[in-house]
Amino acid sequence: MSRVLFGLSTTEVKKAVNQTLRETGAKDHISEIGKLKYDILKQSSVLAYECETSNLSQVGGFKNLKEWLQKRQMIFLGEKNIPGLDTPKGILLLGVQGGGKSLAAKAVAGTWGVPLLRLDIGALYDKYIGETERKMRDSLKMAERMSPCVLWIDEIEKGISTGGENDGGVSQRVLATLLTWMAEKKEPVFVVATANNVQTLPPELMRKGRFDEVFFVDLPDENMRKEILSIHLKKRGFDPAVFDLDKLSQVSNGFSGAEIEQAIVSGLYSMASGSGILTNDILITEVKTTRPLSVLMAEQVEALRDWARDRTVSAN
Prior knowledge:
7-stranded mixed sheet; 3 domains; single chain; globular
């Protein structure tokens, strides 16, 4: 709990702890105190506190990413100090839409037990000269005051992509501010940036040293699909052992994690309007009547996978 209270004055600490203890039904004191800390320090309208986090155990696949994060957890949290070893800076997650990049960002914060802040990079832009850059600086300062924390920048390419000459150089100045901060920050703020379109990302963001690693989130393989099916069935109160996960995994080839979840949701609607029992046949029917993104946007998805194959580290 002391990590979450870092950066507050004695009076603010007492206020946060007392208010949390007064809250009825507050099961997660760390999350509640983190939210109160954010409310006390709040200065930015583009930086949101994410109350709902996850855990890496609730994320199907991502074997390499999970191992990478586990090795760095104690260093980031200050539980182990090794001379000459820097605090982890962050990661860039590239990949197919619906592959679980956002869920992974939430899982890092939930697993490490630190606040999760989401930077709405689209809301940064302001019509007044200098306001966009000021909002960016204020947001980064806020993240430092909330440290240790995870700063999630979702779809980062939408705010700092190349080809932004028509905005008067604002996107380039925003990028420069972010890169300078990432290089010079001393506080434990772990950046998780996600992106869908790698072609528009500026090279200065991609080079080694900006992020600790660039991971590619691919479509799940057969074993991962079984794991994802099991997670979402359990989440909705069903015993995965009752279902033929091997068959369901086979027919859902090419599906992202989000599309697998949606097939289960659609199956529940079919169940509710029919016999009231969720069966294997219902789920198979829902999968077979769905056209995943890998089919609808086949050329773009394959181009992204080809690009990432020898340039990034697989998250799975």
